[in-house]
Specification:
about 290 residues, Arc Repressor Mutant, subunit A, Endonuclease, Chain A, 2 domains, 7-stranded mixed β-sheet, 11 helices, 10 strands
Length: about 290
């Protein structure tokens, strides 16, 4: 069996690549001498013995008493328990160290994101930080990934408006489905994601179909871009709601559309910040005259 494959998880948990290969070899071939291990994983003897000494120091490998020593791996359940304990110890230390740092001030530059986890983490943070309203344009797999976080935002009283590409039940949200959903998803082979929180923060991303890579992704807290993008997306969602004819009865506006119109008239946090900024700038200029 080739134990050189799939060592990534053990490396992520703190072992080196060579240590991972040796441990996996020993799980299936204990006891084994250093010579047999080196041949089994096709590594130089010197490197193998150095990694074995490291594994023994970590308590992950045991050595037979004597001169021609053979080695045995500790049971996997013990290894995982030890790695888990070590992880929590390091996590506690990292939390204490990071808590002493003073975060840099927010800025309004545009940043590129490079991994799918980074995209979803940023969206979850936007949902957690949103105060009033968040607009989301999500392909189905993105909605499934974020559904719990969306529901948590609605429970906090945040207005969540969704533009979707196929029908889905998302309690507490105002959702519209574009009639061209299937056509758009066929046209764009990937996962489309757009989000604007409070007119303050936005994310635009396009991931691969399996979300294993990012085709393109941008995030910013630019007030000018976010506030304008909010207006554009809200108008698009309202237009889709009217096109669907949701709840039209006897020439009365649908309940969803009435709620959207009310939200459109309410002060938006991002707009308020922009107005304060421009007002302050104007006042500063008048004072210098």
């Amino acid at each position: 069996m080739n134990n050189r494959k799939n060592v990534g998880p053990l490396v992520e948990l703190g072992l080196t690549g060579l240590e991972s290969e040796i441990y996996k070899f020993l799980v299936e071939n204990s006891p084994a001498t250093g010579y047999r291990i080196a041949n089994g994983i096709d590594k130089p003897m010197a490197n193998t013995y150095k990694a074995l000494r490291s594994l023994m120091a970590k308590g992950i490998v045991m050595a037979e008493q004597g001169t021609a020593r053979a080695f045995r791996a500790v049971p996997t359940v013990l290894l995982l328990a030890r790695l888990e304990k070590r992880f929590h110890e390091m996590k506690t230390l990292a939390e204490a160290e990071l808590a002493s740092l003073r975060p840099a001030a927010e800025d309004e530059k545009i940043y590129r994101l490079y991994t799918a986890p980074q995209v979803y983490e940023r969206l979850r943070e936007m949902l957690r930080r949103s105060e009033k309203i968040i607009l989301l344009d999500l392909f189905p797999s993105a909605l499934a990934e974020l559904k719990d976080d969306i529901l948590a935002a609605t429970r906090r009283g945040v207005n969540v408006l969704l533009k979707l590409y196929q029908p889905a039940e998302v309690p507490g949200c105002l959702a519209v489905v574009t009639p061209r959903g299937a056509e758009i998803m066929d046209l764009w082979p990937g996962v489309g994601i757009n989000g604007i929180a409070d007119g303050r923060e936005l994310l635009i991303a396009f991931l691969s179909n399996r979300a294993t890579e990012v085709h393109d992704a941008l995030w910013s807290r630019s007030l000018v871009i976010s506030a304008n993008f909010h207006s554009a997306m809200l108008s698009e969602i309202m237009l889709l709601a009217m096109q669907e004819g949701l709840g039209f009865q006897k020439n009365k506006e649908p309940k969803m559309l009435r709620r959207m119109q009310a939200l459109q008239k309410e002060p938006l946090p991002g707009y308020a910040e922009l107005l304060r900024r421009y007002r302050d700038d104007r006042n500063d200029k008048e004072e210098t005259k």
